Amino acid sequence: MRITEAARRLGMSPRMLRYREALGLLPPVREQGAHRRFGPDELAAVAQGIELEKRFDISPAELAFALRVLSDPAVAGAVRDLGVRIGRIQAPRRALDFEKEKALRLLRTSTPGQTSKWS
């Protein structure tokens, strides 16, 4: 079906459907250079996106960016770095940091005057 019919079935305007397409929220066109046709799979994909927007109270642009973060490692890394910097994401612990913390814990738990089994 064409975009006008698809938009009517989804309860939106063709313009809003084109906007979602521009954001990358529609499956790719199957044939290069062909006009977009909407079948059951395309309608279901758009409906799923709309449901996510409603459930999480986000805009189509926010959903499109979330998909970009999931699919582009450079964007994911930049967003992760920001999240660490502003305290929304815990910085990943390095193996050496873990071993250092473990050693410090062991040193703190030993009693004064007690020799370690490694000395």
Automatic annotation (TrEMBL):
Phylogenetic placement of the source organism: Bacteria, Bacillati, Actinomycetota, Actinomycetes, Streptosporangiales
Gene Ontology molecular functions: DNA binding
Domain (HTH merR-type): residue spans on this chain: 1-69
PROSITE patterns assigned to the protein according to its UniProt record, in alphabetical order: HTH_MERR_2
Protein name, per record: MerR family DNA-binding transcriptional regulator
SMART domains in UniProt: HTH_MERR (SM00422)
InterPro entries: MerR-type_HTH_dom
Keywords: DNA-binding
